[in-house]
Write a structure and sequence with these properties.
Blueprint lengths: L4 H17 L3 H21 L4 H45 L5 H18 L1
Helix pairs in contact: 1-2
């Protein structure tokens, strides 16, 4: 006869709540401890077998490495963008205000050449 531990745990939970509501706290705590032990057993029985667990662990580690690499690439890209914007701003600050529009056009042309060459 197979025992459905989930149903037993649920029933024990209902009994513990009833005892709690009746002021029988010591009895409710005793039932709760039994319920926790059963739940722990159920949890341990549902753990993946070692081979599958190691595969799962490998997949988690692989995912973590990929996410870290992507984050680093994004972070580096953002740093380069900030450096580019700073360089552009510093150059604009050094120019006479009437020369800034011509510089802006030239800067866009330089960027387009670099992008097209890739």
């Amino acid at each position: 006869m197979k025992i459905n531990k989930r149903k037993i745990i649920s029933s024990l939970n209902n009994i513990a709540n009833s005892l709690d509501n009746s002021g029988l706290f010591k009895e409710a705590n005793t039932i709760t401890k039994v319920m926790v032990k059963l739940a722990e057993e159920e949890s341990n029985n549902n753990e993946p077998e070692p081979e599958r667990k190691s595969h799962l662990q490998r997949m988690i580690e692989q995912y973590e490495r990929r996410v870290k690499r992507i984050f680093e690439e994004i972070h580096d890209s953002m740093k380069r963008r900030i450096e580019f914007k700073n360089e552009f701003a510093y150059t604009m600050d050094d120019l006479d205000p009437k020369d800034r529009p011509a510089f802006e056009v030239a800067a866009h042309e330089i960027l387009n050449k670099i992008i097209d060459s890739r």
